[in-house]
Amino acid sequence: MEHVVGDRIIRAILVAAVVIAALALDQSATLRRVDTLLFDVVHQLREKPTSPQVLVVAVDDASLQHLGRWPWSRQLQADLLDRLTQHQARAVGLDILFAEPQLDDSAADLALAAALRRNAYTVLAVAPGRSAEPGLISEILPLPRLASAAAALGHVDIEIDADGLCRSFYTHAGVATPHWRAFALAVLEVGGVTPADAGVPGPGTTGEGWRRYGRYYIPFDRDPAAVEQIPVYRLLNDPAVAERVRDRFVLVGSTAAGLGDVVSTPASFDRERMPGVVLNAHILSGLLQGGLVRDLAAPRQMLLTMLLAAIGAVVMVSTGFPLAVLLLFATVLAIVGFSAMLLALGHLWFAPAAAIAPLVAAFPLSGMWSLLRERRINASLTVRMQHQTLHHATTDLPNHYMLEQRLRELDSRNRSGLRAAALMIFHINWSESIGGLMARRAGDELLRAIAARLRGAVRSDDLVAHLNGDDFAILVEGIDDPKAVCRIADNLIAAIKQPFGESELAVYLAPRMGVSLWPSNSADGTALLRDAYIAMYRARVERAPHPCMYSGDIAREVEAHAQLERALLSAMDRGEFEVYYQPQVDPSGTRFIGVEALLRWHNPELGLVYPATFIPVAEHSGLIQEIGSWVLHTACRQVAEWHAKGQRALRLAVNLSPLQFVDTDLVGEVRSALAHSGLDPQTLELEITESALMHNMQDAIAIMLRLKKLGVKLALDDFGTGYSSLRHLQHFPLDRLKIDRSFTRELHDNADVREITLAIIGMAKRLHLGIIAEGVETDAQKQFLGEHGCDELQGYLFGHPVPALELLELLKGEGSFTDVERAVAAFGDWPRT
Q1: Is residue 555 assigned to a domain?
Q2: pLDDT digits (tens, 9 = 90+) for 352-365
Q3: pLDDT tier at 819 (50, 70, 90 boundaries)?
Q4: What SS3 string covers 674-705?
Q5: Domain that holds residue 319
Q6: Distance (Å) of CA 50 to CA 192, 253, 278, 279, 372
Q7: How many domains does the chain have?
Q8: Residue 560 falls within a domain, yes or no?
Q9: What is the per-residue pLDDT for 136?
Q10: Rounded CA separation 477/463 (Å)
């Protein structure tokens, strides 16, 4: 957690540093040069051809050769203007400064002024110049006589960037206030066109010196012949050439080498500079076509720079090498792409260098931090993986591998003559635990509670291990006295048997423990683990409430038990199981009411194996559900056949093991057995043990209600030997109670048993439940139970369990059994099992 918080802080610091750096670099002159280069590349992609309405009448070298050296007489310039007027130029811009009078011909200025008035659509140029006062800028204006005769004045001021190139102009400029329109803008407006990009200077544009407003980028056409030019001498001497000026915007200016102003632009080739009149032609074309690009407002530029830098920084610090390199490259391209998209769609230029530079500069630092972070994470993961390899995921106790490591150390300790050890392995038998099967669904919390209780019950240097979901181990060193080990084991079992939880939600577990000693029982650590498992297995099979200490005899018994389990695994496939049936009669013994289905196993090597022997093995091996399902289907099918032969009143009782009862598919199995056999659900009675019901009352009641909806009857088997009480019993949807054979056997020898039996019968009557007693072997037992209201009886007195074919011999004629004496005689010769 500390590493996570630390990483987040470092990430936040890196992101903040990138954002602050981006903010600081936003006005950097060095980065401004990078931005202008990027602008040239991006702006070139949206280049448009110059408008054909723009024409330049050039004072070029050829014109100087034909008309003489510059400056020309203003009379000649008046003739030029008249020529343009004659051929109806839409508007004329004289990109020539007329700040001083012509001294050698005073009539020339008057002639030019007259020509200006005749044209009425001519714009004269205004330029910034040095003032007589140091540090101030003045306006270079045309002669008043000429200025008053012109249609308008326009400034020819341009912006020179740090790299010496001209990329932009201002729509308005002037001393103190930007009151002069740009030269090209004035020409358009005189010609009757008001561009959308003209703008109006705001109140915040006043101040000292030369003021500017409305900066736009010039849309250069890189074709050298993009702007059509006509030499002055051809315009004056060739009427056909002069006709080309009709209804066009004409700019007159110098293009001759060494004459007039020239500037370098991004469209210049081979360092050739562009004459001012051609530059104004590009400006005029851009204003005429619209869509000029301008800078994003400074606050928005700053905000967007910080936002993009922050996004890029977050992306950079959130990934590791080499992905971070690709993402950095993608981020830079994305920022440039965003700038290009904003320029293309919004006609706004976002300078991206300030957002990109901090990302590029911070990348090595971020990479170094990322590398150190990955090394730290890898080291942490290595430690965690090593811990997980040696510890159980749920309880965080040492697992089987760590226990084996500790046991391997016993060999070296044995050679060093060190002290002995005892290994205790216990298994949580969920099916025998009150609430265990239901609690196992919650599982993890209960396992952690078991682990905490075990750690609290042993010494700090004793090893408590969680071997798997159900098995735990405790390795106690420095002890080899069997009695002392047994005391420790008894204490551990007593600790686990204490309830987990409170009141009715408490869970009572039934642990089974095996113990082995080293070196007295086991030769080494591997043998110690094996022998402890063998002892634990024996405790599970015998359901021993106390620890089982390993011995050679136990090992042989467990091996025999394992042989039985192996045989049981294939018994179903080999058809070795058979269902026997034991009669259930009325109290008088004169009428047979039903039969109970009981399972027998005929093994070719082991002979007849009784349920008391193989059912625990089936539960342990997980075969009990499959076997129980087979018994249910077989018995239902058999009794349905008897019903078809006229034994309609015969009821079938089938036992359900606790594991079957909590099986989520139990109701489906019962429904399937009834459907496939055709048995009337009213004649099927399912016998459920008390322990299965008391695991979880709410779940048990829900399962029973679902079974009742099928129409079957429910009986509580072996009543009186478990955990039931009248308070709990009344909540279960039962039809019958079955008195356990242990009570029936002692009816005449134990007065307490007789009182308990009578109490059970009375309780069943009060709850309107039927009552059946099993284990009836004598007439005295039969008579006692009959006299005190027991509804039904079952036991060897009325017959042993027999196969279906033998029982069929008793089902003679129509109806139920009627000849009790014949039936008893038939069963009486069988061995009692």
Answers
A1: no
A2: 888 887 777 766 66
A3: very low
A4: HHHHCCCHHHEEEEEEHHHHHCCHHHHHHHHH
A5: 2-45+296-383
A6: 19, 18, 11, 12, 57
A7: 4
A8: no
A9: 75
A10: 9
